[in-house]
Design brief:
The chain contains twelve helices and 25 strands. It has helices at about 10-20, 40-55, 75-85, 100-115, 125-130, 150-160, 210-220, 235-245, 270-275, 290-295, 300-310, 320-335; strands at about 25-30, 60-65, 95, 115-120, 170, 185-190, 205, 225-230, 250-255, 340, 340-345, 345-350, 355-365, 375-380, 380-385, 405-410, 415-420, 425-435, 450-455, 455, 460-470, 490-500, 510-515, 515-520, 530-535. The chain has a seven-stranded mixed sheet, covered by helices on one side. A seven-stranded mixed sheet has the order 19-16-17-18-12-15-20, with no helix packed on it. A four-stranded antiparallel sheet has the order 4-5-6-7. Helix 2 packs across helix 11 (about 300-310), helix 7 (about 210-220) packs across helix 8 and helix 11 packs across helix 12 (about 320-335). The protein is elongated. The two termini are about 40 Å apart.
Amino acid sequence: MEELKANNFIEEIINRDLESGKVKEVYTRFPPEPNGYLHIGHAKSLCLNFGIKRKYNGKCNLRFDDTNPVKEDEEYVESIKEDIRWLGFEWDKLLFASDYFEEMYNCAVTLIKKGKAFVCDMSAEEISRNRGSLTEPGKESPWRNRSVEENLDLFERMKNGEFADGEKVLRAKIDMASPNINMRDPVIYRIVHARHHNTGDKWCVYPMYDLAHPLEDAIEGITHSICTLEFEDHRPLYDWVVRECGCENVPQQIEFARLNITDTVMSKRFLKRLVDEKTVEGWDDPRMPTICGIRRRGYPAAAVRDFCERIGVAKANSEVEFSYLESVVREHLNRDADRVMVVTNPLLVEITNYDGHETLEVENNPNAENKTFRQVSFSNRIYIDGSDFMVSPPPKYHRLYQGAMVRLKGAYIIRCDEAVFDDNGNVVKLRCSYLPESKSGHDGSGVKVKGVIQWVDAANCDAITLRRFKPLLGPSNGETDFMSRVDKNSVKTETAFAEKALASARVEDKFQFMRIGYFVKDKLSGPSGAVFNEIVGLKDSFNK
């Protein structure tokens, strides 16, 4: 295989392994626990593992780490599969940790027979208290020296359901004085009397992550087990399990820095609490950092992949500005999203010297490689945005005021002749005239104007609902409880008028609402009207 240029330290390792012949084919896996929905933090690991598969023409499994039946659910399994496919990836094998429960149990028996594991009667609290510290060794369990025969008998009885939850555990017998606390006789099996989403009631003993994960990798033939930095201290235990269980395949664990984004909490526990307490609409609330949430928010899958590629893979944790994610999303939308005209603060304009109705051809996206056009209705009564008219404008104001002219996007130049006020002094209508020779694309008027504004035909437009979002979490101010930071007014709803082109939009279709922002059609749309979520604004706040 021809060596490919490495873009990060993980690919450098892979290149060396391929060049030396240590591995013939690169095999990775993405191993989420199905106890919640994936979030933007998972996207980095997801894109990394599946991206390596693509780059090296290798393989990547989707493996659900379902060793805790209390927290896992089929709903999460299906959501994770959908998220991965939305991001543009496909797995080679769909697997579950629970597929290997029999083999894992047999490996635990092997460890007992080798004198490398024992059944312990200490509670979780007692085990924790006796683990020691970074400066003091731990204390050995009083049951550490049980005989092999006794341990085998007790472990089988654990499997047969003779003991209650927490009454006994199986611990690896390693070294209570190890400088690595993870090696101090860690728990590798515990009792859980709960129905498992995949195996039902077959098992009441379940392997801990530190036993299950290396065994899963070894059984599947994984070559490079890529995980986040918090597992770096667990690597000696990972290698111990593979070695002591006599696994033929020896995977290599490699750790990288997880994705952290400013003012974005990516704790499944916190996100689940938001959902359970109905603080948000659900896991796919557009304010949520879940993958289904950012999908509903309107982030393109290609932009998420691009973002993960740009931030790179590092060995040290760092934090990425949220505005950078928005900047990448905006860049993709600016290139790909069609433009449409929407008015949020409608002000009626009567064009006094225009009589009739016509259909104009307006370009959809000036940045598209293949130019396309849409039909836009035009008549003598239109809406413009109220902010595009001022009674007493400041200097260099290039929109409408008495006697001023602007171009209506894709249409004609109009001049404001008169403003009509109500009894309270508010402008309720403008009377304007248009220049017949100034039609966009065929302008022969010779008149040059600096202002171009959006508009909609008052007789042929639709009322739509816009939803705009502020960050779900306010400033921390030292609070440790994230719930105290939740901004319950982080959604603002307003009504707007849109050109008819939006009537045929489908859910998840994305648009630039000219001079307003980028929006996506939401699933709340129905017979009563269309709903659009703001994706990002037009202005880029990221300092490139």
